[in-house]
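Consider this today:
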Amino acid sequence: MGEVRLMQLVQDLERLGAEMSLLGCGNDRLEASDFLHKQRQVVATADKIQRELAGEIRFNPTRLIGIAYPFEAELESVTGLLTGLEDIKQAAVHAVDELPAKTRQFARLVEDHLADGTMP
């Protein structure tokens, strides 16, 4: 998986979360339509990130040749990211006011994940 692709998706998710939060403040019918569109975009982007992260979990051949690889740490890190995505999806539907904070927190988690070098 490309780190650049993952970060682009995370930035999109963060931007969409902020936009959705702003739309959630309005009462106009047009804004309601825009809000539902952004809601679908947030969920779709979270699904894309989830697919990227799921692709990260694959067979680790280094164990066959005796080189240590932090496989457990990788699984734990990816699991934490997937849990964060589920929180974002739930916030997009039930708690829009929490969405910007959740997307910012998720972006930091991804940055930490990439900085740890656990991505193959």
In short: The chain is about 80% helix and 0% strand. Residues 74 and 117 are 9 Å apart (CA to CA). The two ends are 8 Å apart (CA to CA).
